[in-house]
Amino acid sequence: MKSGSNLERLLEKGEFVVTGELGPPKGPDADVVKKKAHMLKDNVDAVNITDNQTAIVRMSSIAACKILIDEGLEPNMQMVARDRNRIAMMSDIFGASALGIKNMLCLSGDHQTFGNHPKAKNVFDIDSIQMIYMVKTMRDENKVISGDEIEGHLKMFIGAACNPFADPFRYRVYRLAKKVQAGADFIQTQCIYDMKRFKEFMKQVVDMGLHEKCKILAGVTPLKSVGMARYMALNVSGIVIPEEMIDRLRGAGKGKAASEGIKILCEQMQELQEIEGVAGIHLMAIEWEDRVHEIMDTAGFLPRPKV
Amino acid sequence: MIVGERKPFSEILSMVEDYSKILVIGCGSCVTVCMAGGEEEVKILASQLRLAFRKNKRDVKVEEAMALRQCDDEYLNDPLLLDKVKAADIVISMACGVGVQHATSFFNRRIPDKPIRVVPGLNTTFMGANLDVGIWEERCVGCGDCVLEKTGGICPVTRCAKSLLNGPCGGSSNGKCEINKEIDCAWHLIIERLEALGELDRLKPIEPYKDWRPSHNGGPRKTVREDMRI
Amino acid sequence: MKEFEPKIIAFCCHYCALAAADTAGRTGLQFPPSLRVIRVLCTGKVEVPHLLKAIEAGADGVVVIGCKFGECYFKQGNYRARKKVERAKSLLEETGMEQSRLRYDSVAGPSGKDFAAVISTMTEEVKALGPNPLRS
User: Fold this and answer.
1) CB distance from B10 to chain A under 8 Å?
2) Of A10, A128, A284, B202, which has the maximum CB count within 10 A?
3) Do the beta carbons of residue B44 and residue C95 sit within 8 Å?
4) Which subunits sit against A, judged by 3+ Cβ pairs under 8 A?
5) Do chain A and chain B touch with ≥3 beta carbon pairs under 8 Å?
6) Hey, which bits of C23-74 come out as E strands?
7) B212 closest CA partner among B137, B131, B166, B147
């Protein structure tokens, strides 16, 4: 076992996992984290805690992860390359492991110009792929980057992100291969709306046998309204939302778009489960944690398996 | 070449408004090429200062001078230039940051009986290439360990907003960088170039962690060619 | 009080503008005596420092007169001149002086009327602004 986490054990067993996501508050209020945690508990297998997402200052991922552990949930700590150099990263990873964190995702991070502190200097000492390799080396060779021995042993289940919809499309599967080669144990994709393109991508993934070495979780986000759909299509890179989906939301009638969005999501989740190579779902219902139970129930994914 | 932009006039004016003998020195190299601090820009700034001072009824002398470069003693060590410097109570250097500092150091060494004030007329920005009339773009951040051979001649340290060595990130869209649609995604360009060269396999191995010591991160740098010194 | 006679400097291109000025003169159109015409081969030769220096020297207004766009003998000279005048205007404004003391205008071939109109517009504009504050 690389970490013995709930997520790892479920995937080992071949269960179709579902991970959730939680954005920490823009301040020190632990109760906000606890409230959201309670909504997600027993509805998903593990919960991503974002790391200053969109470069907006929030409670640190590592701290929010610990709060989650204390509430009886399993966190997936996210760490971006933007704000920490390799020294701070390795240090925080030791700390995270000491606090009981067993899963982490290695990400590039949104550039600071997107956030509320665009004047800040960024770091980008190492990139996400080097970070994956770093954590793998720390775990499997018991060494830090310099080659010095680690005191004790690091257990960590390593995750990474993948955007099959970014450009250049033809290169995306090779980048995924590189992340797997670097040591990624699991991958979460950017949210999927274009099923056709995703299936094309998964075919390439399966052809290369990547799904055997690394567990791929398909990312989904429920659309709450036509406005949200349009906003995402315009502002989030790589998201393409088919017109049929937008028509369905519009056609649902006043005040009913959100429910239709949930219906669409449940259909997506069913469809994704059928695709070869998909080992689970990553459900990103940011600021909609209170509907996660309803979504999971409607889609027929409850109760969550125990292992 | 080094690229810079002239500081806003109001900022320059506020640096010199308490003085009455101003000397503007331009530089004939990089900043002439990027139209920020050459002879024409010296004339313009000097005219503007005279107009602004006279409008406020102040009797101020604004002199103009040029040096081929301000980053080498030889080009500053001109008797006519030095006379003008001695006669001034403040100097505006239109050179890049290197020139401003070197001129300050040189003038103060060469004219020991009076402290010489030199202020910058430009904001020095980057090392870049001239793409078209009036357009310059950053190309090199001076990392000290050039990787251009591996990336088809396109620098990921400089041209990727995140300096990824194993790019692209998930924000690459239509060949453009997520932070600004006017900027090309460096990794998109690298992939295209390596494909054209038939060398896409160069990107297969994971590029290891960069050693940032030779870059500015390792501290202010110095190069000494002992073989050139007697 | 003596009426304010604006000192206007007109940079005129050798081709259209000067021909127009000539025609205007020959057909007896009146101009303020303080109009100074400076011939340039093409308005593209006029540089931003020239324009600022003219104001420094005490001109109340400076107009750069070239061929109509598309008819410049040197193809793009007048486009360059217009751009430079725009630049000089904003530089002038930075110093606290009125940017409308500088102007770019186009005239057709040998149209005396065009030329007279340009000078008259400039004169009116400058009269409204008053004399160059640098002239004491």
Assistant:
1) no
2) A128
3) no
4) B
5) yes
6) 35-40, 61-67
7) B147
Q: Among partner residues B10, B51, B56, which is closest to C56 by beta-carbon distance?
A: B51
Quick check: B55 and C49 CB within 8 A?
Answer: no
Among candidate residues A259, A260, A105, the one with its CA nearest the CA of residue A186: A105
Residues of chain A neighbouring B212 (CB-CB closer than 8 A): 125
Considering only alpha carbons, which residue of chain A is nearest residue B185?
A: A167
Which residues of B fall within a CB distance of 8 Å from C53? Answer: 43, 47
pTM: 0.92
Question: Could you tell me which CATH class the domain C8-135 is placed in?
Answer: alpha beta
Q: Report d(CA A170, CA A291) in Å as an integer.
A: 36
Tell me which fold the domain B2-126 belongs to.
Answer: Rossmann fold (3.40.50)
Sign of torsion over alpha carbons B197, B203, B204, B210: positive
The Cα–Cα gap between A98 and C87 comes to 63
pLDDT tens-digit map of A186-210: 999 999 988 999 999 999 999 999 9
B173 touches chain C (CB under 8 A): no
| SS3 category, A229 | helix
Considering only the beta carbons, identify the residue of C49, C55, C96 that sits closest to B44.
C49
- φ/ψ of B91, rounded to 5, equals -115, 135
The ipTM estimated for the assembled molecules is 0.92
Residue limits of CATH 3.40.50.2300 in chain B: 2-126
For residue C95, give the chain B residue with the closest CA. Answer: B52
Residues A239-266: tens digit of each pLDDT: 778 888 888 988 888 888 888 999 999 9
Q: C60-86: buried (b, 16+ CB within 10 Å) or exposed (e) per residue?
A: bbbbbbbbeeeebebeebbebbbebbe
H or E element at residue A233: helix A226-235
Q: Do B209 and A82 touch (CB under 8 A)?
A: no
**How many angstroms separate the CA atoms of A22 and A65, rounded?**
10
